[in-house]
Design brief:
The protein contains 5 helices and 9 strands. The protein is of the alpha/beta class and 171 residues long. β7, α4 and β8 form a beta-alpha-beta unit. α4 runs parallel beside α5. The structure holds zinc ion (2 copies).
Amino acid sequence: MSSQEHPNDKRVSWHEYFMNIARQVATRATCDRKHVGAVIVRDKTILSTGYNGSIRGLAHCTEAGHLIEDGHCVRTVHAEANAICQAARNGVRIENADIYTTASPCWNCFRLIANSSIKRIYYGEFYRDTRSLEVAKELGMELIDLSELMNDPSIPIVGEPKHDDSCGCGE
Ligand SMILES: [Zn+2]
Ligand SMILES: [Zn+2]
């Protein structure tokens, strides 16, 4: 039921709803070089969430500084990987689910998403990894650009607005 079908329904669309939540999740990220949030969803129900942060129990970038390797901060586990870990910790099946992520996945996260049998990736901004786009096609997965939904000014944006070689998101 969309707002188009019912002009008096002023609610956000499902895509906006889940992307807005992913953006809120991103505000908990602990590496300020890039804040990313991810939400895994099936049948309009949130199964798990994740943001980029340190290994559980270890110091965060905000406390210990970044851990830079080849120009990237490698201290954090990425948002998409953490969402998959959260599902695993709680015994939640994510097969055939969708993932909403504020930035399209890096190659490492893409491989985890693919092997979790998540079929659709909705992303808020394009990340530089184009390999995922090509491989997704081959795997029958979809990568869907929702960047036009990233404009709710009430949700804070932290970190670089766009990825580039210096963003150090950890790939
Ligand atoms: Zn960092
Ligand atoms: Zn990643």
